[in-house]
UniProtKB/TrEMBL annotation:
Alphabetic keyword roster: Coiled coil, Kinase, Membrane, Phosphoprotein, Transferase, Transmembrane, Transmembrane helix, Two-component regulatory system
Coiled-coil annotated spans: 195-222
CDD domains: HATPase_EvgS-ArcB-TorS-like (cd16922), HisKA (cd00082)
Annotated Histidine kinase domain residues: 222-434
Designated name of the protein: histidine kinase
One Pfam assignment: HAMP
Localisation: Membrane
Length: 434
């Protein structure tokens, strides 16, 4: 504040000196080439009030008028402080001020008539009103600060409470999550948008972790069940043949072989899960006709659809794409296999392939049992089975759609599901062509 006020005082001081100069010129008598001494006296007395010395000389450099405080050659700081008149006009920092003399020419109608010299201490000669103004301003600012401080502290405590309470809740929740408890959620809300988003994200995270934990437990149970059945069958058949109860026949050996194949398939699915977890699958891209691939896979399913008396229609287009052919073959096979499993006799399955300007669109639609809204949200989760009993009957372990999604996303594509219970399901896949 002092810096700006000092600038204001400097500008005001320069204006005052300019006024003295104009007044001195006005006191000049051009006809007689003399000065009105009474006017000069009034000017210098007024200058004295502002602690300014004035010396006027003619064109020959002879003194016309010389006013010095206390008749000294220079105005001393001590004399200023001792003078009762000057006690009313003190500098805020007099010890840092230096005596200054400033000489300017005096001209009348472009003819030099003399010069005027101003003498003063520095440029920041404060008047009594200036000093009082600064004091009042500082006092007002101090009072405003003291009045605003309690309010600021009160508001700060409210804001801090709004921020700290939710964060404390999140801290407690994360400690429980670290201990394996995924069932707790943050129930409080706040008006701070960012904090609210944090709470929602943490709740979504714990919910997701809880779902994954349930799915992993379900997988353990399912694998134990899947392993127990073929192992029990193998054990019983082999022990019976070893004890001579059963004769070793090709049929019984074939039964044991089928159970071994079932175990092999289960282990293969577990390996797929491990690769999916570690994200070790890499794409082997090549340029091929996606329409031809879809037609070939669809033709392979014709017999299976006919045996189940399902109406299967295939509508494809010639689309050249650079992608992992084996991966997309697995995707189409998996979707058609699911449609075959979960569509009852007399239903309909459709595979459609079409292209836009920059995407390939693959749609598999069936009139099967459909999915609930909850199942649609979890259908792409690893190990999830919408109908566990039916999946086990058909040899599923709940990893097919998770693998499908992983392959599609590796191609920078997307997969969505639309379904209605007892009316059917539609899977829609988009793949970039460029």
């Amino acid at each position: 504040m002092n810096k700006h006020f000092n600038k204001y005082v400097d500008e005001k001081h320069e204006e005052t000196l300019a006024q003295y100069r104009e007044a001195v010129l006005f006191a000049y008598n051009p006809e007689k080439e003399t000065w009105y001494m009474r006017d000069l006296k009034n000017i210098t007395e007024k200058a004295q009030d502002n602690q300014v010395e004035i010396t006027i000389k003619d064109s020959n450099n002879q003194d016309i008028w010389c006013f010095k405080h206390q008749n000294s050659n220079k105005m001393s700081h001590n004399s200023m402080m001792s003078s009762s008149h000057h006690k009313k006009k003190q500098r805020l920092n007099p010890e840092s001020s230096n005596y200054i003399e400033k000489t300017e020419p005096l001209s009348f109608q472009k003819e030099k008539i003399g010069s005027i010299t101003f003498g003063y201490y520095g440029n920041q000669t404060y008047t009594e009103h200036d000093i009082q103004f600064i004091r009042d301003m500082k006092k007002s600012l101090s009072m405003m600060f003291l009045a605003a401080l309690p309010l600021s502290l009160f508001l700060a405590s409210i804001v801090a409470k709004k921020i700290s309470l939710p964060i404390t809740e999140v801290n407690h929740l994360t400690k429980k999550v670290a201990k394996g408890d995924f069932t707790t959620h943050v129930t409080m809300t706040t008006t701070v948008i960012e904090i609210n988003e944090l709470l929602q994200s943490v709740n979504a995270l714990t919910q997701r972790l809880d779902q994954q934990q349930i799915l992993r437990k379900q997988l353990t149970t399912d694998i134990a069940h899947e392993l127990r059945t073929p192992l029990t069958t193998l054990q019983g058949n082999i022990e019976a043949m070893m004890d001579g109860i059963w004769e070793i026949t090709p049929e019984r050996l074939g039964l044991c072989h089928n159970e071994i194949l079932r175990l092999t398939r289960l282990v293969g699915n577990i390996e797929k899960i491990a690769r999916l977890e570690q994200q070790n699958d890499t794409l082997v891209k090549e340029v091929f006709n996606l329409g031809s691939l879809a037609n070939a896979i669809g033709m392979n399913f014709n017999n299976s659809f006919n045996e189940k008396q399902l109406d299967f229609s295939l509508k494809t287009a010639d689309i050249t794409i650079e992608a992992d052919k084996d991966g997309l073959s697995q995707v189409i096979t998996n979707l058609l296999s699911n449609a075959l499993k979960f569509t009852d006799k007399g239903g309909k399955v459709t595979l459609t392939l079409q292209a836009t300007s920059n995407e390939a669109l693959l749609i598999v639609t069936d009139t099967g049992i459909g999915l609930s809204k909850e199942e649609q949200q979890a259908i792409f989760d690893r190990f999830y089975m919408a109908d566990p009993a039916r999946s086990r009957q058909t040899g599923g372990q709940g990893v097919g759609l998770a693998i499908v999604k992983s392959i599609i996303e590796a191609h920078r594509g997307s997969i969505t599901v639309t379904s209605q219970e007892k009316k059917g399901t539609q899977f829609k896949i988009t793949l970039p062509l460029k």
